[in-house]
Structures are given as C-alpha cells and as structure tokens.
Amino acid sequence: MPKKESIDHSNFFQDLALSIKGESSSRKHDIISFLEEEVDNEAWGIELCRGQLIPLKVLYGVELDLKDREILEEWKQYDRTTWDPLDTAGEHQGMILESGRRSGKSLVAAVIIVFEFYKLVMRKNPQAWYGVAANSPISLIAMATTADQTQKTIFNQIRNLVPLVRPLKRMAERGDIDINKKQVACEEKMIYIYPGHSESSGQVGQNVICLVMDEVARFPTDPEGNSYAETIWSNIGLAGMTFGNDAKRIALSSAWEPGDAIENLYENVAKPEKEYIGFRLRSFDMNPKKASRDNPVVKSEYSLNPLKAALEFEGKRLTPQNRFMNSTAVVQAFSGRSKIRYRDEPADDGLVRKTLLSAEPADYFSVGHIDPAIVGCRYGFAFGHTERDKEGKRLVVIDGMMAWQPYASNEVSITNVQQVILDIHEKRPFIKLTSDHHQQAETIQRMRARGINAQGLTFSNKHQLNIYEQLRYLLNEGRVVLPKDSPIKELVKDELNQLELANGNRIEPPSHGSKDIADSIASVAWYLTGDEVVDDKPKVISSSRKVQPEDQDPRSLPPPQEEPSFPNRGSMRRKYFKQRRKPRRYSFGEDPY
C-alpha cells in the first residue's frame, strides 16, 4: 500500500489562494522550470543556449546533466570558472559573469531579476516572510554605466519579459502590476524593480534583495582611481543583509583593460568566496549561435582589428603599452560642467541637425576648434578657456563639446553647424576659431564675416603628435577640466582612452573608432597653452602668440586679410611661403609652411 504524502499546511492555503486568483505558487519552480513553464516562450521568441543556461543552473543550484558537467569541466580546465565539481553547497548568493559582446549576458541578467521579482510577488506577504516592517518596500535594482544605457539594455529586456510571465501578465491585466519606463511595480505588495546607473546613489538605504550591475568594467572611477562599480557592489550590496541567503548580487561585463572592475571582482570575490560563483567566458562559449567565429560580422571584426576583437569577444585584455593616454587621468579630468545645452533634431530631410537650447553668458573669451566630417565620421566641435587654479597653475577648461553624427544616408548639415557655433558666439565670444582645412572654406568665411578670427589649418602627423603630447602632459598634471555632464561624455572618454601611438610618429584611433572630438579638445588645449611645448617634461620654448585670449576682444579685430591665391600651385607658391617662413617654431594657429 503506497505511503500517504504529508501535507504542508503552512503552504496549502497560500497555494489555494493563489490558485483561486489564477496564479501558481513559486515554491515548486526553480529558474529552469520557471523559464519552461511560466514564460510564454512562443511570444518571447528567444531560446537560451546551453552556455547561457549553465551559469543560471549553477547560480541557483539546479541539477546539472552530463553535458553541462562536461562543459563546466572544460571551462574549469582553462580557468574560465570558479565552479567546483565537489561543491555541494547548492544555490549561490551571487555571480560574477565576464563575457564578450553578443554573448547574451544582459539577457541572462534580465531573467535573474524577473525570476526574483516573480518569487516575491507570488508570496502572500513578502515583508512578513523576511521579517521587515509591513510598510517597507523591497527593491530589485538593474544598473548600468548611464541611465540611458540602463534603459536601452537590461531594463528594456526586463520590461519586455515581465508581461510574458503568465502569472505576472494576469496581474498586470488586473492592474496589480504597473510596467513603465521608470519602474516595474507591484504596489499592493510594495515590490519594485528600478533602473539605476553608476552615479545614482538613491538606492542606498533601501531594502535591496537583488542588485544586477551590467558592464561594470566601464563604470567611472572616483578621483582616487577606484571604480564606482566596486563601491556600489559593497554599499548597495549591504542593503541585502536583511534577506540573508536569498539576497542576490550579480555583476556582468565584457573585458575592458587589465585590472578593470569585473576582473577585480572575479579575483577578489568569486575566487575566495564560495557563496559566489564566477565565470569569465568567451562570447561563443555562451552564445555559439550568434557569436561564433564563423559569423561574418565576427570574422570581419577580427580581420579589421584582431587585438580589439580578441578583447571584445574573448576577454583577452590589451596591455596598456600602446595606449597613448593615461585612462585614470582622463577619467579624473571630467570634473567640470557644460556651459551649453542642446538637443538633437530628427533628420526628416536627410540632414543631421542640433538645436542650441541655452548658453551661459561669459565675460571672458573662448577658443574653439571644428573637426569636420560630412559622411562616415563625426563632425566634432569643442571650445574652452584658460584660467588659474588656487596654486597658480594654468588650467584648460573645456566649456562645451558637441558631435554631429551622420548615419545611414543622412549627412551633417554644415549650415546648422555654423549657426550653432554663431549662436554660442553671441553669448560666449570666440577670440579664435580654428578648423581642419578640409572643405571648410565656406565655414571660415562665414565666421570671419561675423568678426571671428577664424583660420583653416592642415594637420601633419608631426603636428598632431605635438598637440596630443601637450594634451597628455596637461591631463597627467591634472590641468584639463572636461564637462562631466556633457551628453557625449562617454564618447569622448572612449576616444581619448583608445588613442594609440602608431609607429612612434602618429596618433591614431582604433580601426573601429574615431577621434573627432578628441582632435578638437587637443587643438583647443594647444592654442591655450601653446607657449608650453613639452616632451614629457614642461619647458618653455617661446611665447609665440602676440595676445592671450583675455587680452583682446575678437569683435574689435580688423577684418582678416584674404590669403593670396596662385594660379600655379608649383614654384610660385613654394617661393612665396619660403620667403615668409620664420626661423622660430610655429605655434598652433599659424600656417605650418
């Protein structure tokens, strides 16, 4: 005679109440059965690969099949996981997951946070279950480097997945769950999923049961060079102490550079602490379908820049020996604020435009540089001024940075670039405006017509190396102030950090990138500090400029003289410039002939 099953009365009435509402108890679901039975996979349209499911199984202590163990043992052999085949601890409290681009790690993170949300709302009284005050909210936080990135990546996937979980969908249809751009909320039970970012501190002090941090290697650093990712991991992570072993902390990222935050967390948290599981996988380990080396896009990336591709897809970190800038100095330079506000306009007529919303008036004069491009590259612009700090050091303060980005068949509106610069000039007058000479005759003429001392320049490799050596010196000395609230802060940071010294005589961006705004910043810094010509160490060569920016109002300058034109670009032109050549070194702003 079969043995009667004992009834767990403590859960019977909860399950009965849930069944009356049309829900099912989360008590019987692990992460895998949740995905298989509770998620509408047909509507979701995504089938997770084995390489994406294995980290979830190990994190939640789900039974592994033979194939899973074979893969884990191979990863273990190549030091790609901290998994221990003899470990019988079961569920882990957190996970450090490093994996390359297109691996689906953000999707895995979204699954974790939605599963944790599901378990909470399925409980009759989550606060009583965990012993917190009845009116205390319980938070789950999804975080990335910026608010915009959080919305576009992990939080967007969370919002899409929640209504595909059948019980949560029914609750949303009844109005018990609200899904919007700011949060996913179950107000009745005070359970909330919030988007966060690397500089947000509002979550400190809350009851946080689940913290998911995406792309932690790219989180900014504090003035001492410490990553905010590790600070947030510790500070907000402590908010989960109330929930004991049920609290989850997840850090995900692709590799960035030696000693980045994801590498530190893997070495210092996942390896020594058995409560946390660590993975550092190649893109095709997790997602062989879309990130395979046979994928034409991936093959193209390896052909264009094998070192960069190895970093992004395999986590092989580049040594900093070819990096021209000190990344810590670059990050620390973002301590000022932008003096302009603007917005992008829709390119309805095929032209990329911006509208200047405001420009703070200034009683000093500025220097600006335009780095033009029409199709393909960005059209960069930066302007700034010089001032003294408390110690008397001359600082280069960049007051504004802009980038017009062409895309698809849309081109940059040159007229719009000119108008925005002139609008800024009305509030913040330019004493000098320079531009790469490429296709800029019209812009230079229009600027001159408005009384701006504008000049087109041709940049040689030697000159570019000079201005970037100057900028590097100023950054290392802490004498460059960049606007930390600029909309293109991350773009500028990437441009500066990825500059490379090629063949010892020229500065180049990575093959997949650009340096348009970096060129503009370097040019402004060169003009403002052009009497400090440096070769790693500062030394005064000459004071080649006749006036300093604060000495003269550009609107009082006489009309600029047009350069003589030569019908023959041969011997007459060479003779002319030979006669006017000066024995001293030319400074930025003069013709380099």
Task: Describe the protein in words.
The structure is a single chain. The chain is 36% helix and 20% strand. The radius of gyration is 29 Å and the shape is elongated. With 593 residues, it is α/β, with parallel strands linked by helices. A hairpin with a 3-residue loop joins strand 19 (500-502) and strand 20 (506-508). Strands 3-4-5-2-6-7-1-8 form an eight-stranded mixed sheet, sandwiched between helices. Strands 9-18-14-13-12-16-17 form a seven-stranded mixed sheet. The protein folds into two domains: 15-297, Rossmann fold (3-Layer(aba) Sandwich); 327-563, Nucleotidyltransferase, domain 5 (2-Layer Sandwich), CATH 3.30.420. It contains 22 helices and 22 strands. Mean pLDDT is 80; it is low at 1-26 and 533-593.
Summarize it.
The protein is of the alpha/beta class and 593 residues long. Residues 1-26 and 533-593 have low confidence and may be disordered.
Overall helicity: 25-40%
Q: Class of the largest domain in CATH?
A: Alpha Beta
* Large-scale geometry: elongated
The tally of beta strands, per DSSP, is 22
Structural class: alpha/beta
- Report the portion of residues in β strands: 15-25%
- CATH architecture identity of the largest domain: 3-Layer(aba) Sandwich
User: The CATH topology of the largest domain, please?
Assistant: Rossmann fold
Strand order of the biggest β-sheet:
3-4-5-2-6-7-1-8
Taking pLDDT < 50 over at least 5 consecutive residues as the criterion, the unreliable ranges are: 1-26, 533-593
- On the 0-100 scale, what is the average pLDDT? 80
Task: Measure the end-to-end span.
Answer: 104 Å
Calculate Rg over CA atoms: 29 Å
Number of domains: 2
Largest sheet: 8 strands, mixed
Number of helices: 22
CATH superfamily of the largest domain: P-loop containing nucleotide triphosphate hydrolases
